[in-house]
UniProtKB/TrEMBL annotation:
Domain GP-PDE, chain residue ranges per copy: 56-294
Organism (species): Oceanobacillus locisalsi
Stated name of the protein: Glycerophosphodiester phosphodiesterase
Length: 305
């Protein structure tokens, strides 16, 4: 409700300015699980059910990627155990037109391979491992096919999945829909679509018009007029584009606002700021901290009634 968002935003803004939420500005590139790291706020003692009162969807970006290798079954399992609202998955297509969970256009940063995933078959991709360092430990795990993720979690989770053009064309959308149907997941209860590509998103809407869609904007590409006119249920903004005026305008148009973050140094503080503006969802690299912010927001709202 609008009055709840206005009240929530005003009260939390006061707390932010007064230092109610403590957030370390630096996040180390390689870090230990949050239970052992003083950076992370302990959310113990705050009722889990209060998170719903603030109406903020918590989306685990690439799984629990601050604890384990991004886009792996383990990272998604940790996120699922944390009871997030959605598991976020980036799709890439292999040479033999199979779908895998991978963010980058190249394998180099997160795996033992090199070059674009489109240059390798799924069998070749499965010979690779993801690699990440947390604290002093190096962890490895295979790159998962999308089908493996669906097979593991089935209808127990909600999947927030990003599609993209392949070689400038809409090649992954139909195989993706087929895979959802095979696993009985083509239902708004189980999946949402997102993309930076209007063409990809339009193709997804043609194939499955009942599924919620999110049009994403890079920070330097956002245009409010374009977003207001976009054929999408949700607008996905980089946090630097989130202002109260933008959020209010999109809400008045009947669109939700979901926020992603690209600067690790400011992400924790930025989460507090955008939640105060009444956004509907956040893509988080730190589930525990985001739950703390949302729960605190809900507590403020409940006690202000």
């Amino acid at each position: 409700m609008l009055w709840r968002r206005i009240l929530l935003g005003a009260v939390i803004a006061v707390f932010i300015l007064s230092g109610f939420f403590e957030a370390e500005p630096e996040i180390q590139q390689t870090r230990a699980p949050y239970e052992a790291d003083p950076l992370y706020v302990n959310a113990a003692g705050i009722p889990e059910t209060s998170a719903a009162a603030a109406d903020v969807e918590i989306i685990a970006r690439r799984g629990a990627n601050n604890i384990f290798n991004e886009h792996t079954l383990t990272a998604y399992e940790i996120a699922a155990d944390a009871e997030v609202d959605s598991l976020e998955i980036d799709l890439r297509m292999t040479k033999d037109h199979e779908l895998i969970a991978l963010h980058d256009a190249a394998l180099d940063r997160t795996t033992t391979g090199t070059g674009p995933p489109e240059s390798r078959t799924l069998e070749e991709i499965k010979q690779l491992n993801t690699v990440a360092v947390f604290g002093e430990e190096t962890y490895t795990e295979p790159v998962p096919a999308l089908e493996e993720i669906f097979a593991k979690f089935e209808q127990k989770e909600h999947y927030y999945i990003e599609t993209r053009l392949v070689d400038g064309d809409t090649k992954m959308e139909e195989p993706f829909i087929d895979l959802l149907q095979e696993h009985d997941l083509l239902n708004p209860e189980y999946v949402s679509f997102q993309s930076f590509s209007k063409r990809s998103l339009q193709k997804m809407q043609e194939l499955a018009p009942e599924i919620r869609t999110t049009l994403l904007y890079n920070a330097n590409k956002f245009n409010l007029k374009d977003a207001l006119a976009a054929d999408a249920d949700v607008i996905g903004l980089e946090s630097r584009n989130v202002t109260r005026d933008n959020v209010d305008a999109l809400h008045q148009q009947g669109k939700e606002v979901h926020v992603f973050f690209t600067d690790e140094k400011t992400q924790l503080a930025e989460q507090q700021r955008v939640i105060a503006y009444g956004v509907d969802g956040v893509f988080t690299d730190d589930i525990d901290f985001t739950k703390q912010v949302v729960n605190n927001a809900a507590q403020v709202l409940l006690h202000s009634r």
